[in-house]
């Protein structure tokens, strides 16, 4: 009788998309905002810090039913686009080092694909493009704001996701799916619970239900205690949701479905602040109960702001902390989706260490983005960017400052008096009288000089 019960339990677990008890483990997969510039170099981040996997955010629609990073970078896009190349190279290099990634669709900004793509076929094609481009086996759906209440779009979304999982299974593979939803200290909102019910009703096998333990809008709660309270409430909500769809999960299986994502440091809703001590408190609960997932928003924020600034920013936490203090707490979750990353603080990254940014001293390119301090060569001279620029020609725009001595390149913003000379397109020109903004090749007031 016990053997029969165990066999039935195993079958039920498989049908629900669950791991066997022996395989239960927790993963730390912090979010990475892939729309930042320079593009976060995930292989360098992962190997330097010993982080096993990342959640890459966010894929949304661009120009209709077409996938893109942040509504800007079309997927798959041009092979010559440096940001897209940096993303592809980062993923490939990270996998080469034993890491793995999950791509997140949706988020707070832009139009989710399930709303932009109005048919199942078009939505499935959009998702398949992303899956194929990055050879994915793990995806996340961050559904928040108005997207939560779009019942038709959510049903379409989960019907398509279930179909994709079925296709993967037919090929002997698994498409792992995480569902990320806003939460309050009491757990999922009513809208979030309806989204979860839609996923289960459409037959999606969920690895985790991941709550955003942030921006509650309440009066300065203890963010560690609030996150723990929300996780406990989520456990009960997952239990009820699965029972409503005819599945009873064990205690261990329910905790494996629980995922929690706090916002490191200052939250958007002030004065909410998630501290390193809060992270330790949450990790203690997660570790003892074996949560399936810990994440955070975001890896780029896991450091203090310049001069220990106290503000909300995409690339720092707004609190005083040591670099990667939050990651060092959460990476106690040892599960790894890849073959396993070996930490190496000296690894320089496989993309020239620049995350898709320009390499100083290379020839100027009209399509490259340059930040303050980047240097290029153009018309035989070296130029230094004074601020962000793209497409501005060195010698013809004030953003570029020529470096070194000797005859200076002609500048459209410089004033020249009679007999002043300048280089233009590799040739020397001298002014006949005062001039500003006139191309040396236009004739008067310039004359070609030997």
How does this model look, in words?
Keywords: Hydrolase, Signal. Residues 341-366 are annotated as: Disordered. Residues 347-359 have a biased composition (Gly residues). This protein is α/β, with parallel strands linked by helices and 450 residues long. The protein has two domains: 24-330, TIM Barrel; 374-449, Carbohydrate-binding module superfamily 5/12 (Seminal Fluid Protein  PDC-109 (Domain B), Ribbon), CATH 2.10.10.20. Helices cover 30% and strands 20% of the residues. The protein has helices at residues 2-15, 42-49, 82-96, 113-116, 120-134, 151-170, 190-201, 223-244, 251-257, 276-289, 325-330; strands at residues 27-28, 31-33, 53-61, 67-69, 73-74, 100-106, 138-142, 176-184, 187-188, 208-213, 258-262, 265-266, 273-274, 293-294, 362-363, 375-378, 381-385, 400-403, 415-416, 421-424, 427-431, 435-436, 446-449. The strands form five sheets. Strands 1, 2, 3, 4, 5, 6, 7, 8, 9, 10, 11 and 14 form a twelve-stranded mixed sheet that branches. A hairpin with a 5-residue loop joins strand 3 (53-61) and strand 4. Helix 6 runs parallel beside helix 7 and helix 7 (190-201) packs parallel to helix 8 (223-244). The termini are far apart. 44% of the residues are buried.
């Amino acid at each position: 009788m016990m053997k029969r019960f165990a066999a039935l339990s195993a079958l039920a677990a498989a049908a629900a998309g669950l791991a066997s008890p022996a395989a239960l483990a927790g993963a730390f997969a912090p979010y990475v905002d892939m729309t930042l510039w320079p593009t976060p170099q995930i292989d360098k981040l992962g190997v330097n810090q010993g982080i096993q996997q990342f959640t890459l955010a966010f894929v949304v629609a661009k120009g209709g039913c077409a996938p893109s990073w942040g509504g800007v970078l079309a997927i798959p896009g041009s092979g010559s686009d440096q940001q897209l190349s940096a993303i592809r190279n980062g993923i490939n290099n990270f996998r080469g080092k034993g890491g793995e990634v999950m791509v997140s669709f949706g988020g707070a900004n832009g139009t989710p694909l399930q709303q932009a793509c109005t048919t199942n076929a078009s939505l499935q094609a959009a998702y398949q493009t992303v899956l194929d481009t990055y050879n994915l086996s793990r995806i996340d759906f961050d559904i928040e704001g108005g997207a939560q209440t779009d019942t038709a779009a959510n049903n379409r979304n989960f019907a398509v996701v279930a179909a994709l999982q079925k296709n993967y299974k037919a090929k002997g593979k698994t498409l792992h799916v995480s569902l990320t939803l806003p939460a309050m200290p009491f757990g999922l909102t009513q809208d979030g619970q309806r989204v979860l019910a839609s996923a289960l009703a459409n037959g999606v096998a969920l690895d985790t239900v991941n709550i955003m333990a942030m921006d509650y809008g309440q009066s300065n709660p203890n963010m560690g205690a609030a996150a723990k309270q929300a996780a406990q409430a989520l456990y009960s909500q997952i239990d009820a949701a699965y029972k409503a769809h005819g599945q009873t999960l064990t205690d261990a299986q329910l905790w494996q479905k629980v995922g929690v994502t706090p916002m490191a440091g200052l939250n958007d809703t002030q004065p909410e602040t998630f501290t390193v001590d809060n992270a330790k408190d949450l990790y203690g609960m997660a570790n003892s109960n074996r949560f399936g997932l810990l994440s955070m928003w975001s890896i780029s924020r896991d450091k203090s702001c310049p001069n220990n600034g106290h503000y909300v920013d995409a690339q720092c936490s707004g609190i005083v902390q040591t670099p990667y203090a939050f990651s060092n707490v959460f990476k106690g979750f040892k599960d790894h989706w890849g073959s396993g990353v070996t930490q190496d603080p000296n690894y320089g990254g496989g993309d020239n260490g620049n995350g898709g940014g320009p390499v100083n001293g290379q020839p100027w390119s009209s399509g490259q983005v340059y930040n303050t301090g980047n240097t290029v060569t153009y018309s035989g001279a070296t130029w230094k960017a004074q601020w962000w620029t793209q497409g501005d020609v060195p010698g013809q725009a004030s953003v570029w400052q020529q470096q070194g001595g000797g005859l200076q390149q002609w500048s459209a913003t410089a004033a020249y008096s009679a007999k002043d000379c300048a280089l233009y397109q590799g040739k020397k020109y001298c002014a006949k009288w005062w001039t500003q903004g006139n191309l040396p090749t236009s004739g008067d007031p310039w004359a070609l000089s030997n």
